[in-house]
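tool_log.txt
---
The assistant was asked to compare two proteins side by side. It first ran the structure predictor on the initial sequence, then on the second. Raw inputs and outputs are pasted verbatim so the downstream comparison step can read them without reformatting.
(1)
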Amino acid sequence: MNLDAWLPSAYQAHGFLRRHFSSACASPDGKLLLTGSNDGMIQIWNADTFQKSNQEFRLDGAIVKLAWQPKGDVVAVLCQIGTLRLWRYGSNFKTSIALPVSARMEIGFAPQGGLAFSPDGTRLIVGAMGPTVSLIGVGRGTRIGTGFHQGATRADAIAFTPDGRKVVVATRESTARSYDAETAKPLNAPFQTHGSSSCVAISPDGSKFATGHDGDNSFQVWDLQTGLPVGPRISECGGIDAIQFTSDGGAVLAGGNTPTTRYWDWRTGKPVGSPFPNQTQALATLPGNRLLLYSHEGLGIWGLPDHGCKWTSAPLPRSPGSVAFRPDGAEMAVNVRAFRSTEDPTQARFIHRFRLNDVAGILPPIPTEESAWVRGLKYGRGDEKLYGIVGTGVSVWSVASGKQLARLTDGRFKTGEFYRLALSDDNRYVAVTGISDATPTIA
């Protein structure tokens, strides 16, 4: 984890629009913002300068949801009165695509509603009041089949999996279900969630989904195959209206009706970094490492840390002690502390290793020659070796084989117990310091 990336100053405010909007979305290239209002007005803004374009138009009824086609120029507009319109962005933003009869489809009363394009932009799912989530073919603007039958009330939380093969619908009746995106057939019995679902997100690998609940201020990550909860239920984040996984799937960004929009490690339930000072009804990641946060108070664009956050999670037998990163960032080594009588001392006889770009990347551990805590772990630069202090000496291990290559003792060091280790850039010198001798020793 990049420790500097989540300091409060790391979130750079690119701009704000302090106006009352009922919905907002961004173009796929992140250059334009589209906003809708309760009076039916749709306006276009420059995402860099926040200047309003002269291109605007008004529809009948409040704008509930806006969605922009991925890698395309079609915009879907869902109105509260229950109409759906598809528009193709043009010079005046009023060029309608060819819909049968008209550019207006009756979907059903939508006090909030859900709206999502498939990843390839060819299909659109629409949730409103009633037992059915509609599936729309974008090319012709017509319904495909009879839709997804989800329950008696409305479905605001709907999403495609990243491969576009499944649709997940989380309802206001405390259930969630996945469907085949082509046939609309259910793939499982309804899963029981913790409450009325206001939003849903799918993990990048399509194996998990998260539901946000605006009734009890919580969200939960679930296994998409079994419907079982994965990780703790997180309930300290305000009423949840918007939720999204990070690109590596290791964290969830959740926000709602309180200014506590923030990232969470869904495996541990712990917050990561500082919260954004925004209420959030919708959010989206934009190109250029930017984040769009929208609420009824307005919308803002934030610059995220350049390096973001890489997540690796694996169980350790005891509390971690010394930690080291390989210079190329591909691997991490951890030695556990085992110095209390209640702990298993044999666990400290290994250096545990993890592959950082793979959550399941547990590498073979390296055995050490003693049960003492290995301090001052360091990877060598380019020599595939690992260095660490064991007792009053320094041991050197091969990263490839895990075998000990050298043990620097026998008069090379002054007596005492060492705690810190430094390695020269060319790996020729090692320096150690301890608590019983104020003089650094170099070997």
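(2)
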Amino acid sequence: MSQRTAVPTVPAGWYPDPTGSATSRWWDGSAWTEHLQREPSPVPTEVAAPEVPEPVHVSEPVATTTVSMRPIRPRFLPWSTRSGWALATLPVWSTALSLAIVLVAGDAVPAWTGVVVTVVVLAVALVLVLDDRRTLLDAGHRSTPAVWWFLLTPLAYLIARASTLHRITGRGWAPVVVWTAGNAAPALLVVLLALAVI
């Protein structure tokens, strides 16, 4: 038969801080807490302050922050870059280049000219995409769309770019609108010219 001996427990309360500071620390009945009090409270006379072994490691208090459910949109981060706008107006420039070649050469335009113009335009677009990403990263954006979106079309890159920038700044869709209008304008012009001829 074993006999149990009662271990006296120290009641919870304010006691002199065992670290030696001029404050009182709250004892919760089993361990010291982080709570401090400037003015020491009188210690109960019938109970002595509990002895606590030296801590092995005391970590610094961690700062807490309040998290808002609204996304933080820093307005100081730019969403507009020169290369982004040049990329958005690329359909207008490529149409103008093709039209200029046709007007200068007339009926003597070789069939491969369209392929060359397309390759040149895509090479310029790739340079603009790379410069746009570099400019956005240099301006402080943590993430930008991957260059691989460009492999689908430059418009796919512009859409991915707009989506990313809109999440961060609340802006960024204007180059997509300009690209779409730049592609629609030549087609609309052809339709209007065809109707005028009829």
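---
observation on (2): The CA atoms of residues 34 and 58 lie 11 Å apart. The longest strand covers residues 32-37.
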